[in-house]
Amino acid sequence: MFFIEVGYPSMEEELMVAKKTTGETRPTLDSVITGEEIMKYQKLVRRIPVPDHIYDYVVKLVRATRPGPDSPDWVKSLINWGAGPRAVQYLILGAKTHSALNGSYMVRMEDVNAVTESVLVHRMQLTFQAESEGITPSDVVKRLIKEVGGEG
Residues near 125 by Cβ (< 8 Å), separated by ≥ 6? Predict the structure, then answer.
């Protein structure tokens, strides 16, 4: 669903991992939430309403990542392969989750934009031209948000 970049641990963290996971006794994990609670929250998130203009925006945004008639001309030179229909689903579900976590009763444009980069950056294949110019998927996503009308 999301691309989450996780760096390497610090020297101290990696040393702790080595010591705690290679000995005779295995570390124990404490449960934070039950599977039943997770399912309850998933159902709750899916009930959050999404206005039609948000659905329209999300579909337009994802379609704009695909070189073709629904994308700006510059996309054709920067993207070989764009995001598919799952990106639409995950943008909506991610926005619903963001909305719920921030105490909102419905999805707003801000909720969509908060999750857009994490949902889209790994779903596009950039062209050699884009890579040679140092353009990143994040750059493309930010530009698309501006051009498709998601800022504000």
Answer: 79, 80, 81
Burial of 5 (0-12, 13-18, 19+ CB in 10 A): exposed
> Does residue 3 have a pLDDT over 60?
yes
Asked if residue 107 is part of any domain, the answer here is: yes
pLDDT in tens, 63-100: 999 998 888 889 899 999 999 999 999 999 999 999 99
In a domain, residue 64? The reply is yes
Alpha helices (H) in the chain, listed in sequence order: 11-21, 35-46, 52-64, 73-78, 85-101, 109-120, 128-132, 137-148
State the CATH number of the domain containing residue 108: 1.10.8.80
Full-model pTM: 0.82
Kindly state whether residue 130 falls inside one of the protein's structural domains.
yes
How many structural domains compose the chain?
A: 1
Residues 6+ apart with CB under 8 A from 85: 62
Euclidean distance between CA atoms 16 and 19, whole angstroms = 5
Say if 12 falls within a structural domain.
no
